[in-house]
C-alpha cells in the first residue's frame, strides 16, 4: 500500500492500535502487570513495547525536534534490539509496576497523536514512502503482539486455582470431518511471498525447491485422536520420540498437552480463554510442542510436513485466510475447502528448521534484527491460529518457535 | 491481656488490621500484585494471608456454622503450615492476579466482621480466654507482616529504573554520635521473656546462660564507617570473610550493600522508601547480610555479639522500644540512652544461630509450626527496625534470617 | 562387502578392533577412566561400549547358548538404546572405576574371540548375510568411537595445568594457499549415498534437491583469518551473531576458540594432541561452534554452505578421502584438488539442520535408534577430520552436533 | 610434645605418612583418581594435598634454598587457602589424571625425605619448636584426610552397580545393649581442651557454659530403631522435620539413610567398606544427616544434645578413645562404660551450630584459615568414628559438617 491518502493510513493505524487496547479491555491492571514465565510478557509490556516500536523506529527518525516521551522507556520497553541499546531483563518484565497501566496508556495516546500528526505533515516523496514502509512494519508487528498478548494472558490466568475466563463465551459443539489424504505431485515448486502486499523479510526471496510427491491430511488432528495416543501409552513409549523430546518430556513428567487436566472422576478438561471446559473430542488438539507433534505423527504412522510441502499444498488446495477469527479456541468448523483448518485454528508444526531462504537479506540497521538472528534451533509453523488477528495471515507466513514451546495455539497436521 | 472487655479487644483488633490497609494505601493494585523474588511476597498476598490466619485458626475453630469465605483461599493463602494442607507455590505468589485486590479487601472486611461478631457473642470462660490468646497471636502475626510488607515493597520498587518512592517524605540530616564501648560484666545471666505480656514461643523458657565479660558498641555502624571498609578493599580481601560468605559475595559480584549505587560521577546513592537519595554518611548502614556484617566486624578489629550478650546489655543499659517509629529509613537520631539505636532503626545481626532455648516447647497442632521448625541455618537478629510497627518490639524478641538475607532493615552493632 | 570369505572378515574385524586399543595405548589407566564433561566419555567406556555393541547386537542374537560376559555390563555400557533397557547415567561414566581397565580389556578379548568363532561357524545363507551387515555396522560404529576417543581425551588432558601431550610429535609449519571461490551451477541435484558400499541409514534415500547457483571456498578458514575476526571485535559485536549464539557466548564469556589461550606476553597458543603449541596462523581454525562459524562468516561477508551445496560441490570438484590421516591436528597441507581440505582436517559446519531425507526409514528394533531419533536441534557437518580413521569418510557422510559443540575438530568452509 | 628427640619425631612422621599409603594400598590407580561428588576428593588428591601441606607450610618456610617439587602443584593441590594463592577448582579434582598416582607417590617420597632431613639439621631453639608445632599440625591434618579418604572412596565405590568392597572382611553379628538414660546435673561447666597435648584452635579457649540438667542416651540409635522410624512414616510426616530438612528430603525424594537399599524381595541391605551386606539391626545407624537425626529424635520424643552437654557428659561418664578402630563399619560392641560408643563408631550430631568459643583466635597467616572461616551454617559433631585413625580422637574434638551431609560416618545419640 503506498502513501497516497494519509487519512486512510491514519484510519488503519488507529484501527489496529485500537484493537490492541480492546484486547486488553477485559483485564484488570493487575492482570496486565504479571508475567507467568520468561517466555511470556505482561499485557502492559506488550502495550508499551509496540508503542516503543513506533516511537523508536519512526518518530525518532522522522519527527522534527523529536524528544522521547520518557527517557527510561527506551530501555524498559526494548525487546531484543541490541542496535538500540540496553534492555530491561526479559524475565523481570512482570516487576515493572511502574510505569502504571494508566501511564502506559498515556504513552500510547501520546505516540499515536504524534504519528497521526506526522502522517498529516509529510510532503510527497521519499520520506512519505519510507514512512509508509515503516508504518506497515509497525502495524504488522503490533498484530504479532496482539496474538502474543492473548497466549500470554491465557498462560497467566491458568496459574490461578480459580481458572478465570478471559472472556465468557459459549463454545458450540460439533462433529469433526473424516481425515482424508490430499495428494500433491511435488517436483520443482516455488516457495515464498509473491505479489505486491506486505510480507516479512523471512518470506523472501521467492525461490525454487524440489519436493517429492506427498500427501497432506485434510484437517488437523483432533483431541479425540490425541487422547487415543495418550491412552495407548504415547507418553511412556520412548521409541516414538525424538531423543531430546523424550528427555524433555520425562524431565517435566509430561503426560498430556498444556492446559489439559483430569478431574478426580477421570474426566478430561481443557483450560481455554473461555475458562475451564470439558474436553471436546472433535476440536483440534492444541498447545502441543513439536516433540509431541512428532511423537504423535510417528505413532499414527505418518510424519510432519516440511514447510515447502505445506505451502505447496496450501497454494494448490487451500482457501484464503478468513477475516474474522474467533479467538476463544480452535474450533471444529470446516472452511469448505479440500484442505480444511489451514488458517484460524492452530499453527501447524512443520519438520523444517527455521533457516534463511537462499539469498535472504535482512534490512539494514537495528530493524534488521527482526527475524534473521533467530534462525537457529527453532522450527517453522505454518497457517495461523484462532488468536491471529484478521488480515494478518498469509500462505507464505513463517511463524517459528523452539521445539518445546507449548503456550501458543499449536496443532498437528499430518503428512506422509 | 485477658478478655475482660470485648469492646477493647475489638478496638485493638480493628486498629491493627486498619494499619495494614493504611500501609498499602500509597500503592496501586499493580504495585500490590507483584513479587520481586521468592523470599518476598506481594502486598496483596500479605493482606490475604494475614486474613487467612484469623479465618483458619480462629473462625474455623470457634465460629458456629463456619463456612470459608472461598474454598480456594485455604490453599492460595497458606504460607507454610503443612498441618493445614496444600499451599500455592511460594515463588508464584505474584501470578495470582485473581483474586483481585478488591476481592482481597472484601475478604478482609468479611473476616473482620465475623471476628468482631465473635468477640461480642462469647460468654465468659475458657472459650473467651482461648480466643484472647489466638487473637493476640494473630495480631502479632499481622504486625510481623506489616514490616515484611514494607521491606518487600521496597525490594519491588527498586526493580524499576524509575526508582519510585513509596512515600515522599524529607529525610533530615544530622551528625552521628561517637562510637563508645559499653562494658558488661557477664557471668550467669538470665535470658528470655519475663513478665505477663505476650511473647512468641521462641522467647521461652526464660533460662540461664554463662557470659564472659564483654563490651558492646554504643551505637550502630554508620554508612560512613562502612564506606571506609569498602574503600579499604573490604569486598576483595578474602581473609576478612567467612568462607561461605566469600563464595556467596563473589558468585554475585557484590561490592556494596543492597540498594547502594554509584552514579557516573562517583557519588554514592541509596534507594530508600522515600526514593533514591544521596548516601547519608551519618545514618546507620543497613541492608547488609550477616556475611557482610561479620566481615566488617573482622576488619574493624571487633566481632558481632551473641544474642545472650545483646539481651544482657540491653536489659542493663538500654531504653525501651519507642512508640512511633518513622518507617522511611534508619536515622541517626539518639535515644538518649547509653546504648543507642537498640530499637527502631536496624535489626542487629548476632553471631548466634537460631536454636531452641533449653526446654523449648512449640504449641500443639498446626500453629506449632510458627517458629520451631525454622531453627536451623538461620541467625538471630535483635532489636527492631524503622519498619517495625509501634508496640511490637521487645528486649527478648528473636528475629531470624539466613546469613545471606539483605532485604530487611539489617545493620551492625559491634562487640568485643 | 558380502560374506564370501569369513577369514577376510575376521582380519578386518581384528584390524579395526586392534586400532582402538592402539589409540588407547599411550594412555594410563587413570587417563582412561576420567570423564571431563557429560558430552565426553572416558576412554575405558569407549572400549567397553563398542564391545557391548557387538555382544548385544550380534552375539546375543546369533551365538548359540549365548550368556553375557557380565550381567551388569548390559546396563553399564549401554549408551542410549532404550530398546535394550536401562542405562548407567551418562554424566557418571567417569565414576566407574570398577570394572578396571584390565577387566574391560578382558571383556574385549572375550567378545572378540566369540565373534571370530561365530564367523568361522556359520553356514552360508541368510544368517551369514545378516552377520555381515551387523558386523559392518559394528565396525563403522567402532570407528566413530575411535574419533570420539581422541576428541574426548584431548578435552580431558586440557583440564590439567600440566597440558600433557597425548602423543609427542612435531607439527611441521607451512604456508596456506590463497582462498579462491569455486563456482557451482546448482539446479536439481542428487544428494545421498550411491553405490554398493556401506553407508549409515541417514545417508539414504538418495534424492533430488534444488540448489541455486553458489560458490564454495577452496579451503578452510585459517587461524590467521580467525584471529583477524577476533581482533576486529568479533566476540563483542552482537550484530554478527545469531541471537542464541550471542547469549551462549556471553553467558560463558567466550573470546576465542576452545583450546586457544594467550600467555602473559600476549602470544597465542593452542592446545593440541601434541601438547601446547604456538598458534600456527596457516593451519585451519578448529574447535569452533556453529555459532562462531556463523558469526565469522557474517563478518567475512559470506555464509555457511548447506549440506546439499557441500555435497554437490564435493562431488564435482573434490577429491576422495585420503587413506592415512595424521590425527595430531588439522594441517595446512593441500590435497592438490580444486576444493582442498575436504577430508582429513576439520569437519565443516553447514547451515543445515539435521533432518531425515525424504523417505528416510530407520532400521527395525533397538538398532533403529542409531540416527533418526537425534534429528532435532542439531546441525550437519560434512567432510572428515584429522581424527577420523582411515577408510571411514565418505562424500555423503552426515556428521551432526548441537550448535554449541566445540570439542570436535570442527572448522569453517565459507560459501556465498 | 616438644622437639627433644628428632629421631622420635621422624619415626612418628613416617608412621602417620605411611599409614595414609597403607589406606590407599587396596585401591587401583583408577580408584584413586575419580571424584564422585564435589564434596569428596579423589584418593590421589588426598595423597598430594597432605604432602602439599608439609611442603607449603614447613619446607617453604624453613628449608634453606627451598625450591618446589613442581611449580604447578602449588595450585593443583591447594584446598582452600586463599592466602597461598590460586586453587584448582574443587569440583574438577577428578579430572587430574596427570600427575599420575606414581608421580604423586614420588612427590610424597621427595617431601618426606626433605622433612626428615630438616628434622635432623635443625639446631635447638625457636626454629625447632616452630617446626614441632607445624609438624604436629601437619600430622593431625594428615589424619583428618585419612578419615576423609575412607569416606570418599566409600562414596565412590557405591556408584558402581558392582558394589565392590574396599576390603573384604567379615562383620561379626552381635546384640545391642538396652538404651538407658544417663543423668547429668549440669550447672556452670567447663568446656574445651585442657592439658598439654595437641588440639586444634577451635577447641580453645577453655571456657565456662551454663547447662541445665539433662540426660544422655547410653548408646547410639540402632539400625533397627531407625527402621521402625521409617516404617512409622518418618520420611513422609512433615511435622517431624525442620522446614529446611523437609524441603531437602523431598527435593531428593529421600526415604532411607545413604547406602541403604531394599532388594526386590523387600530385604534391606547396607553398602559398607566390606561390600553390600544385609542390614544388621543391632549396629548403629550411620550416614544420616542432621535433618534426619533431628527428625528421628523428634519422633522418639527426645532431642539431640548440645555440644556442651555432650562434652560435659563424656568427661563425667565416658571412657577414653580406644587405640585401634576397625574402619570397616560402626559396630555394636560395647566399650564397657556407662556411656558407650562415644568413640570409634559414629560421629554424633549435636544441635550446636559451629561457632567460635568466646575469645577464639585463629593463627596468623594462611594457616589461620584452618578452622575459623567455616564457622557458619555448619553443625558440630562429637566423638569419633570407625574411620578415625588411632590417636586422633579427643573429648574436646569438634568435627563439623553442613546439616545435609551424609557421607561421613554420622550417627545419632539422643538427649532429653
TrEMBL record, chains A, B, C, D:
Known Pfam families for this protein? DinB_2, FGE-sulfatase
Iron in keyword set: yes
Pathway annotation: Amino-acid biosynthesis; ergothioneine biosynthesis
InterPro entries attached here?
CTDL_fold (IPR016187), DinB-like (IPR024775), DinB/YfiT-like (IPR034660), EgtB (IPR017806), Sulfatase_Mod_Factor_Kinase (IPR051043), SUMF_dom (IPR005532), SUMF_sf (IPR042095)
- Ranges for domain DinB-like: 13-148
Look up the domain of life of the source.
Answer: Bacteria
Its keywords, alphabetically, are: Iron, Oxidoreductase
Please cite one Gene Ontology biological process associated with this protein: ergothioneine biosynthetic process
What positions does the domain Sulfatase-modifying factor enzyme-like occupy?
Answer: 180-416
PANTHER family recorded: HERCYNINE OXYGENASE (PTHR23150:SF36), SULFATASE MODIFYING FACTOR 1, 2 (PTHR23150)
Put simply, this protein is called: Ergothioneine biosynthesis protein EgtB
| Species of provenance | Pseudoduganella armeniaca
